[in-house]
């Protein structure tokens, strides 16, 4: 039995039922332990599973996570039970890359100011704007999402520097550095973009020292996970003028509390974790699920698309 802990919209549900006729499906809006006991395959967004659910996973062999983030799941315990976990890594690249580019162009072409002037019916031609052409961007996490961001930026003649753990070559990156080389590369960057996942290695990877190394007019963007940088570090960088602007789609605490000082800075843009949102999100997720169902039926769990390394956490 295939058990969904969420109920997709009717057209997508009907497509699944017609595409995989030989399987029994169950759909709920929260985890039902009685259904969990019977499930061989579980489809979830990943945030509703806890250690307490593990004893009810009697027959479970595969968990398909309709999200890229799995950090809230009991990964260690799932590995011990021998349950395969796969996700939809890569489907976010189009909406997230478009979101990142939109924020960059908004800042470079002063769209916030233009919109404010428009509201006041002011014909103000003294709006400062600059070009992306010839600038340099460091992209932390040059995988599927980071690579798509790099591809779009290169179309604007931006030099792209990818940054990952190994420093090994990645698509659409003009140069590569490792995490150890980041501090030395930051003075060259006009834009610093992170799309890194949340792992032990990336937690608090960006420190006050990194902001001090950036250009005073640089743009810092975090679209990966809020654990990358402490909120106090962001506030300090803004207060000290160590960075030109910050755009965050993710935060240490979500929703960002109304009392947070981050709301008060003109050079801070708070995006409420929406950069990956798209009307095509589940459509793309279910395309991966259907492909993986064919692999699963062949008994080839080790070759599932986007199989998660439960030890590494991604």
UniProtKB/TrEMBL annotation:
InterPro entries: D-isomer_DH_NAD-bd (IPR006140), NAD(P)-bd_dom_sf (IPR036291). It comes from Kurthia zopfii. Its EC number is 1.-.-.-. The lineage of its organism: Bacteria, Bacillati, Bacillota, Bacilli, Bacillales. It is an enzyme of class 1 (oxidoreductase). It comes from the Bacteria. This is 2-hydroxyacid dehydrogenase HI_1556. PANTHER family: 2-HACID_DH_C DOMAIN-CONTAINING PROTEIN (PTHR43333), D-ISOMER SPECIFIC 2-HYDROXYACID DEHYDROGENASE NAD-BINDING DOMAIN-CONTAINING PROTEIN (PTHR43333:SF1). Keywords: NAD, Oxidoreductase. One of its GO terms (molecular function) is NAD binding. The keyword Transcription regulation does not apply.
């Amino acid at each position: 039995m295939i058990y969904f802990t969420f109920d997709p919209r009717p057209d997508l549900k009907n497509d699944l039922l017609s595409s995989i006729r030989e399987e029994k499906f169950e759909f709920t809006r929260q985890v039902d332990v009685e259904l969990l006991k019977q499930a061989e395959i579980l489809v979830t967004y990943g945030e509703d599973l806890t250690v307490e659910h593990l004893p009810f996973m009697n027959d479970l062999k595969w968990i398909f996570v309709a999200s890229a983030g799995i950090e809230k799941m009991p990964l260690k315990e799932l590995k011990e039970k021998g349950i395969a976990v796969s996700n939809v890594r890569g489907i976010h690249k189009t909406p997230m890359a478009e979101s990142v580019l939109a924020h960059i162009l908004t800042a470079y072409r002063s769209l916030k100011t233009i919109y404010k002037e428009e509201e006041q019916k002011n014909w103000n031609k003294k709006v400062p704007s600059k070009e992306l052409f010839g600038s340099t961007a460091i992209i932390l996490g040059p995988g599927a999402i980071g690579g798509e961001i790099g591809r779009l930026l290169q179309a604007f003649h931006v030099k792209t520097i990818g940054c990952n753990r190994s420093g090994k070559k990645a698509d659409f990156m003009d140069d590569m550095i490792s995490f150890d080389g980041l501090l030395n590369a930051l003075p060259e960057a006009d834009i610093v973009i992170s799309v890194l996942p949340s792992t032990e290695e990336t937690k608090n990877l960006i420190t006050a020292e990194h902001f001090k190394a950036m250009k005073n007019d640089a743009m810092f963007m975090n679209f990966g996970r809020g654990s990358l940088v402490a909120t106090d570090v962001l506030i300090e960088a803004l207060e000290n003028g160590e960075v030109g602007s910050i755009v965050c789609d993710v935060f240490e605490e979500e929703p960002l509390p109304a009392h947070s000082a981050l709301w008060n800075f003109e050079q801070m843009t708070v995006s409420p974790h929406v950069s990956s949102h798209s009307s095509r999100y589940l459509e793309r997720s279910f395309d991966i699920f259907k492909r993986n169902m064919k692999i699963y039926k062949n008994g080839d769990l080790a070759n599932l698309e986007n199989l998660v390394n439960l030890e590494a956490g991604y």
